[in-house]
Amino acid sequence: MFSKPIALMSTVGLLIVGACTPLNSYQGFQVVDQSPTDVKPGQDTRATVQAKLGSPTEVATFDKNEWFYISQVSSRTGFYPSKVDKRNVTAISFTKEGDKVASVRNYTLKNGRVIAYNDHETPTRGREMSAIEQILGSISAAGALPPNQVNPNSRGPGSP
Fold first, then answer.
1. Is residue 72 in a domain?
2. How many structural domains compose the chain?
3. Distance between CA atoms of 77 and 67, rounded to whole angstroms?
4. Which of 13, 22, 70, 81 is a Cys-bridge partner for 28, taking CB atoms 3.0 to 4.6 Å apart?
């Protein structure tokens, strides 16, 4: 039927094509029945928003009246790093005096900003110890050394 080299080449070809197929990854909030755009300011409350959309992805740290529903789609092809294709963030604000929705804001990938990441380390005082110094330091701290090597002029706990 097929010769072995042809079967081998076709198998290798299929593996190469399969490795180049992008893999999509869906993360975060997924719209099922209701869309975040269906939330109406002034009409909906916390309870109705939670009934429509479910629990929020995040609640603001310093303002519990701000809920976020976040979703993201990213793809990865072969050995290349993953790339974010789509991101949606819906921010829902509630009034402070009641539980009514004050505003609904939608943000996409276009609204995002690239933050400059500084990979420098914070300098610390002191010096780096070798592994031997660390081991010997932990032995002496544990009381493994004889007591005559302790400074006789030092006053320990309970000394007059």
1. yes
2. 1
3. 33
4. 70
Is residue 64 predicted with pLDDT exceeding 80? yes
> Any idea which residue has 């039927």 for tokens?
1
> 68: which 2 tokens?
């976020």
55, with CB counted inside 10 A (0-12, 13-18, 19+), is exposed
Q: Taking residues 24-30, report their average pLDDT.
A: 79
Cα dihedral sign, 105-109-111-117:
positive
Q: Is residue 160 part of a domain?
A: no
**Residue-range definition of the domain harbouring residue 45:** 21-110
**Helix extents (H) in the chain:** 4-19, 46-53, 131-141
DSSP reduced 3-state for 17: helix
What is the predicted pLDDT for the residue at 72? 87
